[in-house]
Amino acid sequence: MDANASALLRQMRAELARVSQELLNTRTHVSELSKRSRSVDEEINSIPGRRLVYTLSGEQSFTATQDGLRGNPISMLVSQDGPFIMTHYPIITWRPELPATADNLGLWSPIRSYPMPTQMRSFLNTTSALPTNLDVIDISYELMDSGSTRNFQNTTVGPGLISQPGELIALPVATLFQPNTTVSIVITYHNILFGTAGTDTTGGLLHVDLPGYKIAQM
Fold first, then answer.
1. Is the dihedral of CA 66, 113, 95, 197 positive or negative?
2. Closest Cα partner for 132 from 160, 166, 96?
3. Is residue 42 domain-resident?
4. What is d(CA 20, CA 105) in angstroms, rounded to the nearest whole number?
5. In a domain, 44, yes or no
6. Tell me: the pLDDT tens digits for 94-126?
7. In a domain, 185, yes or no
8. Of 74, 106, 181, 189, which is the most exposed, with the fewest CB atoms less than 10 Å away?
9. Measuring CA to CA, which residue among 106, 166, 96, 163 is closest to residue 136?
10. What are phi and psi of 184, to 5 degrees?
11. Would 32 be classed as within a structural domain?
12. Number of folded domains in the chain?
């Protein structure tokens, strides 16, 4: 074998050794990845289907007599079309609905007594220069998944972890609810303060939205 052929053979052997080592490294890396637990986002992203913006919603009426009491669950059914992914903390608002003559009937307010408990309703009242909406409620809440028969909190969560209209608070990780499961939120009412300069509110309607999206698998 001449010198050129020997050199070419050595070169081919070296290249083959390099490729073999790269293949071994790749196999080792793939093996390590297969043993690693996937993140929540990776699990969700691996689910086939079309992503569609979606919001689970529910409502509940309440009265001033429920101050300090735990209400009935507000239940929201996940569609059978595919799982629902909750991405932000709930948006919870309310409006007076009793009596029909209440001064602030139908006016939406945030669920917590801060930062503006009166919501500056004076702008809606041309007869007074002072804020006239003294209707304020605070709550704590529990979120439950009937499909897994578990609570998401060991204790109730306070109003600091509630999104506001126009100010969504992202969850630390997205939360998946399986198709046909019922998501329930249980409200404990605190500090129900109804009082205005005219006809007092006696009852309200509480509205809950769970922002997120669904994965349609039709």
1. positive
2. 96
3. no
4. 76
5. no
6. 999 998 988 888 889 888 655 554 444 444 444
7. yes
8. 106
9. 96
10. -120, 140
11. yes
12. 2
